[in-house]
Amino acid sequence: MATPVFAPAPLEPGTLRVIPLGGLGEIGRNMTIFEIDGKILIVDAGVLFPEEHQPGVDLILPDFAPIRSRLDDIVGVVLTHGHEDHIGAVPYLLKLKQDIPLIGSTLTLALVEAKLKEHRITPYTLTVREGQHENLGPFELEFVAVNHSIPDALAVAIRTTAGTVLHTGDFKMDQLPLDDRITDLRAFARLGEQGVDLFLPDSTNADVPGFTPLERDIGPVLESVIAKAPRRVIVASFSSHVHRVQQVLDAAVANGRRVALMGRSMVRNMTIAEQLGFLRVPEGVLIDAKKAADLPDDRIVYMSTGSQGEPMAVLARMANLEHQIEIGEGDTIILASSLIPGNENAVYRVINGLTKLGARVVHKANAKVHVSGHAAAGELLYCYNILKPRNVLPVHGEYRHLTANAALAIETGVPAENTFVGEDGMVLDLRDGVARVAGQLDLGHVYVDGSSVGEITDADLKDRRILAEEGFISIFIAVDMQTGRPIVGPEIQSRGFAEDESVFDAVKPQIIKALGEAAANGTRDQHAYSQVVRRTVGRWVNTQHRRRPMIVPVVIEA
Amino acid sequence: MATPVFAPAPLEPGTLRVIPLGGLGEIGRNMTIFEIDGKILIVDAGVLFPEEHQPGVDLILPDFAPIRSRLDDIVGVVLTHGHEDHIGAVPYLLKLKQDIPLIGSTLTLALVEAKLKEHRITPYTLTVREGQHENLGPFELEFVAVNHSIPDALAVAIRTTAGTVLHTGDFKMDQLPLDDRITDLRAFARLGEQGVDLFLPDSTNADVPGFTPLERDIGPVLESVIAKAPRRVIVASFSSHVHRVQQVLDAAVANGRRVALMGRSMVRNMTIAEQLGFLRVPEGVLIDAKKAADLPDDRIVYMSTGSQGEPMAVLARMANLEHQIEIGEGDTIILASSLIPGNENAVYRVINGLTKLGARVVHKANAKVHVSGHAAAGELLYCYNILKPRNVLPVHGEYRHLTANAALAIETGVPAENTFVGEDGMVLDLRDGVARVAGQLDLGHVYVDGSSVGEITDADLKDRRILAEEGFISIFIAVDMQTGRPIVGPEIQSRGFAEDESVFDAVKPQIIKALGEAAANGTRDQHAYSQVVRRTVGRWVNTQHRRRPMIVPVVIEA
């Protein structure tokens, strides 16, 4: 299963080439390209949210390098569902070429169109639904209903002359879903009987034993928590989780409460979901957030964002008393969401803040108020046994998830050599039912920071980490190049290092002395003097303070 | 339960004053001071490990401000057990006054003495054991055995003329512990019958329902994982977890394997534990790490540190192939530890790295290889019912843990107004069985960074966070104060902002123009010119790049 970095041979006619640009080795920025006979099909184009070692980054995109010079060959982008990690990079892709067609279900396209509107892009779209077939160049597509934590999700079967591929998108197999739209195992069975040459399954929960519990077990819990709440109830969830919002609406009605939606994305998404019939809003239950304040405290439920502790979202602002709704004794907060790894500190800071204000905080750890949207190991075994795929490329997961998914494939009889655990940029060629690793592209992370895309590099992030750990010291000197004598300076500034800048008085004479010695030894150029300053200050700060701040010398000719 | 910041009245004779300096609102830097009739007793002096929003900080100490001018009044420091969050600040306390007596059990004092040796301090110590009574000035101490994830832990009862206090230290109530040393509920019962006026219980797991599972359930799991391991086994755990190491030694022997201890603190602590009889090392099981490499792969277990993903510890270095032991296909890694919140990303990075190298990684989420060392809610209820304390001050927890513990007290009949959920610096006075909040001190965080203690401030950390998010731009100019004309510069440097520094060419003319205009409007001083530069660059970077880096102007007189 090793994947060395090597260049693939040119693609021969009749061979299908599969390259995941994102989603392998990370939960996010899902994007896979399929190429045959000169044409390219893309499945998903999502974003990844940064971790703490990527400070100040807003978003991370897949590296579009392999398709940048091939934009005219792209026949379309299939979007499996409307989550950010599957559609978030679409605006950046369409900025390269606006008329690439987007193919997806009604809800998925509505959500991506709302997003594109903010970027002032009107896309070309093709709405599809489960059971539908579409031909795009050499690709014959069939869409299959799957159940996930957002409605109207689709898997896609891709038939080519080289073989048949099934990409699940994100899915689970809730057998009693709220909208009765189950993952279509009959279609999976039929595809399996016809023969699936390559299967790309969601790996997110592949290392979770057993089965994801039923969505409908959540409703009664929400209802009973709301029933017991003496004052206001605030429920926080993902802004696209239509079914969770549905359950909150229903639980509110059962308790004679009204619901106010809070947060821009929550209002936008639920408006779309209602218009398209995915959210059933009981008559008169919704109330404008501003008017809700006039209701008695035990008659209102606020439905908000911020379940991951995001500092600017409604919930964190409430915890910091920076929101017009002032949380107090008797209020109940429900975090109806999973705790995404890496967000623990932020979430617990919010929970502590709300608790301190007197609120009761109900979350996944102390009540069954959320279930995952991804298939656990038990469900994946069903898929493998129904499909009996010839080859498996687990997608959508960190390395540990991909490995766990491959192990499940092997347990159901897929030969180990036909399971491919790889990284973004892996090149997999398929022909006559045989898949093989044909190359490995060296793909990067593309960082979005402010209005810049790809300007911030890994080197900048390394600098930022050093700055965060140690701060910096900058030393400015205008030097006589012949004598090394400072004409102006040394002028020393620091941040994140020490409050009292008089500490630098000790090193200034050392700098002047070192410059003089360097000149005596023949130094005459700016760069060499800079190095002298860097070394002198570096040695001093390390010996005297046992610290390693970034040292930024600026030596100019006087 | 509100605790406004207010100054306590001077302490009257015969009243006991309790002030937690650390451990309230955080898991770490536990330290509480008790004062009566002019004398001070300290219980524990621990450190807190920094979170991601405190970058570059090595350790966080309790604020010693309230005792700094009272060092001669301190009768001693009781150390309840040998974990860093209870003993780690002792060296910094003894640097203020070396002859403050330390009181603790054999193992606790051995561990603190080893630590003090590194700081070249030889302490005054008094070794005590369970059941023992000692008088220190106005404090009559009685030590009670408690069970925890390190041997030889003690609770301490403190009798004064103002009433009796019981401080649990850290504990749980494993009823079948490996060393048969259970938390002494007979002693708790006796103390309860005599009357406990103030109870300070460990809150770490107060929000975990039920009971902490038995330590001895771990052994068979470890044994079976090791039995099935085809090649090398690496177990990572806390370096002071004597019982876990004991279980690994026993499991290794049962499987005909030898054990190599890795990591300086692991070797040091286990050497002490063996010498004092707390660790039973079976004849011939230990082997030097260097010699272990000569054994067949299926005959060795490495016992290492790094279970929290610490980047410099053995395990993370193995995952990065920066360790002499090269992990490969067939190796088994066991993380026999809890995953401390906030460490998830680091730990999963290590797990992904090890998995990628071909190893199987067994951890708490997929096998029962660890149990907590702290009493869960069910155990705390036993304590409350046996003790029936008059007043309760939950310690050792974030706000949500303290609140959960107080709720348990109230459920067992402690009046709500007698439970005190507070923050570090809360002043609680006790007299005639009545406790009341008498003040709130404003205590800070004392940061240790390199060799500096308390030099780094919250302002520096704020600077570091901005630097991490956005990087910085520094602008140097030597200006003619009369005309605003730059004589040298503008010379612009940046880090963490953009790779290509030619972006700044655009703003340089704007700076020169703005300085000229300022001079025309009468500006003549350095500070005002600096502000002009800051505003000009700030506006440019915000408009052109939608970013907010730290802007550091250095304007000097030419």
Automatic annotation (TrEMBL), chains A, B:
Record bears the keyword Zinc: yes
Q: Where in the cell is it found?
A: Cytoplasm
Q: Which residues cross the membrane?
A: none
Q: Which InterPro entries match?
A: Metallo-B-lactamas, RibonucZ/Hydroxyglut_hydro, RMMBL, RNase_J, RNase_J_2, RNase_J_b_CASP, RNase_J_bac, RNase_J_C
Give any GO molecular function from the UniProt entry.
zinc ion binding
Any Pfam family: Lactamase_B
Query: So where does Ca(2+) get bound?
Result: G56, D58, D449
Entry GO CC: cytoplasm
Which residues are noted in the entry as substrate-binding? S239, S240, H241, H370, V371, S372, G373, H374
Task: Write out the GO biological process terms.
Answer: rRNA processing
Q: Keywords assigned by UniProt? A: Calcium, Cytoplasm, Endonuclease, Exonuclease, Hydrolase, Metal-binding, Nuclease, RNA-binding, rRNA processing, Zinc
Q: What is its EC number?
A: 3.1.-.-
The record lists Zn(2+) as bound by: H81, H83, D85, H86, H148, D170, H396
- Cofactor list: Zn(2+); Ca(2+)
Q: Which SMART domains match?
A: Lactamase_B
Q: Which residues form the active site?
A: D202 (proton donor), H374 (proton acceptor)
Is the keyword Aminoacyl-tRNA synthetase assigned to this protein? Answer: no
Q: Which PANTHER family match?
A: RIBONUCLEASE J
Quaternary organization:
Homodimer, may be a subunit of the RNA degradosome.
Report the protein's function.
An RNase that has 5'-3' exonuclease and possibly endonuclease activity. Involved in maturation of rRNA and in some organisms also mRNA maturation and/or decay.
HAMAP family named among the record's database cross-references: RNase_J_bact
Q: What is this protein called?
A: Ribonuclease J
Q: Which organism is it from?
A: Diaminobutyricimonas aerilata
